């Protein structure tokens, strides 16, 4: 990693470049990805929003359905709502399920959100569809995972779908193309009593 | 997790709500966070961009300096460049170090990028500063980690700084408030020969 001379450095970099070129040459498949962001760490939703920003930058239309986080005034909602022709941003549900304390209402909200996701997946206008916190809904059995698998499996070839939230069901991980686990190494909530910070966590 | 009746559900949710309220009540500290995204998985940069979107949504000004990824036509650059009053987006370096094969030039680019980051950290106008892929630069010893620690430690109380990239140095992790490791569970590059997809990876 730390060669001593510039000549050694350049020699090593030539080798890495050749290895990279060889690796990239085998990667020729273009396809829409089923992406899952899970784990107990930060970055599951924000990474999906970063990919939304990237997609809009490339002229691709994005659909976002946010489950669970119904009532929070979030920066992502404020920002993305400025571009109604490029991104459709729906928020479903009336907050965390421990706040609503009404399972029937939560289930109805989950169902309504899922219908929006299905509509966006079926609509060729959307290149990327994000189902934010859908894993929470699946975890509470508010929606059968089979129904989610059916819709994502039947998606158009170039359509990207991102599903976020802790505790992704194994069946979804098995079906996914790209799965990342966000692992908490250090969190100021616990160690420093820092509250959720605007711009970072919402 | 899966109570049988609605009454059981509501009872359980009341308990979770009370526990959440108690936990949140202890979280009263407001502070600018030093955030590190590391690990070999996806989502380190995109999550930082998602936080940039959130911050802009809340009217906070953002500065981004992107190391290493000099020449790629990325969606994030295209998108964020549309808002020059709200975000300053600088790209430094001329690509991956194995492509430039010129250590002196890489070091000069790293230094120039770091000067931009320092300027943004020192400028009260920026609420969030993102040093994207800075860990790579540190890994190659193109910049001493001590200098980075000095600048981030001296930052204003409410300033957020995000540093991304694999192999974050331990000294940086020790100094950080919030550290997430993006862990690769499944990647289509390896398993399906899928190439980097527009909107998702760049």
UniProtKB/TrEMBL annotation, chains A, B:
Using the UniProt record, name the top-level EC class of this enzyme in a single word: transferase
Recorded GO cellular component terms are: cytoplasm
User: Where in the cell is the protein located?
Assistant: Cytoplasm
Q: Name one GO biological process term.
A: porphyrin-containing compound biosynthetic process
Look up keyword Nucleotide-binding and say if it applies.
Answer: yes
Domain of life according to the entry = Bacteria
Catalytic activity reads: 2 cob(II)alamin + reduced [electron-transfer flavoprotein] + 2 ATP = 2 adenosylcob(III)alamin + 2 triphosphate + oxidized [electron-transfer flavoprotein] + 3 H(+); 2 cob(II)yrinate a,c diamide + reduced [electron-transfer flavoprotein] + 2 ATP = 2 adenosylcob(III)yrinate a,c-diamide + 2 triphosphate + oxidized [electron-transfer flavoprotein] + 3 H(+)
Chief location of this protein?
cytoplasm
Q: Which GO terms describe its molecular function?
A: ATP binding; corrinoid adenosyltransferase activity
Note whether Transferase occurs among the keywords: yes
What Enzyme Commission number does this protein have? 2.5.1.17
Q: Which Pfam families match?
A: CobA_CobO_BtuR (PF02572)
The entry's keywords: ATP-binding, Cobalamin biosynthesis, Cytoplasm, Nucleotide-binding, Porphyrin biosynthesis, Transferase
Pathway membership, UniProt: Cofactor biosynthesis; adenosylcobalamin biosynthesis; adenosylcobalamin from cob(II)yrinate a,c-diamide: step 2/7
Q: Which PANTHER family match?
A: CORRINOID ADENOSYLTRANSFERASE
Q: Which family does it belong to?
A: Belongs to the Cob(I)alamin adenosyltransferase family.
Q: What is this protein for, i.e. what is its function? A: Required for both de novo synthesis of the corrin ring for the assimilation of exogenous corrinoids. Participates in the adenosylation of a variety of incomplete and complete corrinoids.
Name this polypeptide is given: Corrinoid adenosyltransferase
Naturally occurring in which organism (per UniProt):
Sphingomonas koreensis
């Amino acid at each position: 990693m730390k060669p001593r001379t510039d000549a050694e450095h350049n020699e090593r970099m030539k080798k890495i470049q050749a290895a990279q070129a060889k690796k990239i040459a085998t990667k020729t498949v273009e396809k829409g990805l089923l992406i899952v962001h899970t784990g107990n760490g930060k970055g599951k939703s924000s990474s999906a929003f970063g990919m939304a920003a990237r997609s809009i930058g490339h002229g691709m239309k994005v659909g976002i359905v946010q489950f669970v986080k119904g009532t929070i005034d979030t920066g992502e909602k404020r920002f993305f709502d400025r571009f109604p022709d490029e991104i459709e941003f729906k928020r479903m549900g009336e907050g965390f399920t421990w706040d609503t304390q009404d399972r029937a209402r939560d289930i109805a909200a989950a169902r309504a959100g899922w219908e929006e996701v299905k509509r966006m997946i079926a609509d060729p206008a959307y290149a990327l569809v994000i189902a934010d916190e859908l894993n929470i809904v699946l975890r509470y059995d508010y929606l059968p995972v089979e129904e989610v698998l059916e819709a994502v499996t039947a998606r158009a070839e170039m359509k990207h779908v991102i599903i976020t939230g802790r505790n992704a069901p194994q069946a979804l991980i098995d079906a996914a193309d790209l799965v990342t686990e966000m692992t908490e190494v250090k969190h100021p909530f616990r160690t420093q009593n820092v509250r959720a910070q605007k711009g970072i966590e919402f």
